[in-house]
Amino acid sequence: MSNPFAPPRRGEAGLRVTECRACQRLVEWRERQAACVPPRFAAWVAEHGFWARPVAAFGDPAAWLVIVGLAPAAQGANRTGRMFTGDRSGEFLWAALHRAGVANLPSSDHRGDGLVLDGVLITAPLRCAPPGNRPTAAELDRCRAFMRANLAACRRLRVVLALGRVAHESVMRLLREQGTPAGDGAGFRHGAVHVLPGGVRLVDSYHVSQQNTFTGRLTGAMFDEVLRRCHDVASG
């Protein structure tokens, strides 16, 4: 297999995601959250501080599997500084990755808790918490360079797991922007496997948000099956 994602464009290689202030609406929103911490997090913030900056990718730089989320939660990764850490989505995801044998811990509370991923990298098309969890198209466009750099750096890439429709469409848009045919052209569908250029597979799953997991739209068993499918198509 070959990595179908192009290297960063001119001027992108030196970008530092945690220093980005390109989207004024997102900058104001993410920083405002540090001033209105819910009581349940007050002791945690007193000990660890409040991140309130863009969130970098997390995991194994030699990953065969890249998981694409959506954006930090206002009091989740925006607070902790690590993707899928400090909220219910993360509780669901880390437990599943631990069951799959690719995470050494079943949960994550803060950046220094010792969590390590083996063969897996987690990235997202948007790195700041958006108001109402709804980024604009322009914000996604400005932020996509960071995800492109993450994907391009994975020399062992075999599978991209898209958590939700926005993640799926963001991956396809990356390919179209760099002039690469975007695979089989099929849209998002939970459990679907799409063949990308170079033989890399794109696997779709409902997002691990509590709106999906609390309602039973996405169960632990369903997501375990998605992770098994990722492993199987990578080995096939």
Number of strands: 6
Q: Helical residue percent?
A: 25-40%
Please state how the strands of the largest beta sheet are arranged side by side.
Answer: 1-3-2-4-6-5
Note poorly predicted spans: none
CATH class category label: Alpha Beta
| Largest sheet descriptor | 6 strands, mixed
Named CATH architecture: 3-Layer(aba) Sandwich
Form type: globular
Instruction: Report the portion of residues in β strands.
Output: 5-15%
Distance between the termini: 11 Å
What letter string, H or E per element, gives the SSE order?
HHEEHHEHEHEEHH
Would you tell me which CATH topology applies? Uracil-DNA Glycosylase, subunit E
User: What's the tally of helices?
Assistant: 8
Mean pLDDT: 93
Query: Strand pairing plus helix content: what structural class?
Result: alpha/beta
Number of domains: 1
CATH-level-4 superfamily name: Uracil-DNA glycosylase-like domain
Structure at a glance:
The protein has 236 residues and is of the alpha/beta class. The chain has helices at residues 24-33, 42-48, 77-80, 88-99, 137-152, 165-177, 210-213, 220-235, and strands spanning 58-59, 65-68, 120-123, 159-163, 193-195, 201-205. It has one domain: Uracil-DNA glycosylase-like domain (Uracil-DNA Glycosylase, subunit E), CATH 3.40.470.10.
Question: What do these coordinates show?
Answer:
With 236 residues, the protein is of the alpha/beta class. It has a single domain, classed as Uracil-DNA glycosylase-like domain (Uracil-DNA Glycosylase, subunit E). Helix content is 35%, strand content 10%. It is built from 8 helices and 6 strands, in the order ααββααβαβαββαα. The chain has a 6-stranded mixed beta sheet, with helices on both faces. Helix 4 crosses helix 8.
